[in-house]
Amino acid sequence: MHHLRVETGARLQEERNRLGLIQAEFADKIGVAKRTLAGYEGGSSDIGATVLDAAGRLGIDVLYVVTGARQAPAVESLSHEEAHLISRFRVLDDEGRGMIVRLVNDLASAAEKIGKALKAKD
Description:
The protein is mainly α. The protein has two domains: 3-67, 434 Repressor (Amino-terminal Domain); 75-121. It has seven helices and no strands. The protein has helices at 3-18, 23-30, 34-42, 49-57, 62-67, 80-90, 94-121. The radius of gyration is 16 Å and the shape is globular.
């Protein structure tokens, strides 16, 4: 195994955990098999651009996964409310942050399901 592949896979796993997603759920959302994701995270497979794009759309910091350097959001692109939420989020410990991430993911999933159900009725 190439050390760069192992490091990249470890950062992908770290980011997945930051979002509060289990392997099966994350794999499904990025369009790969769980076994394939395990290969990425374990460093036995290279992660392609299509997978990184899908992961980025879920909130994965792709720059961090690839380079190890975190991408800071452009402050001017944040609304006052978003900036306030981020500042409050940053004062939480890891457990609190994990709870918030899981809550937001659950709320977003519920909203998506409700939206799909409403479209199906039309």
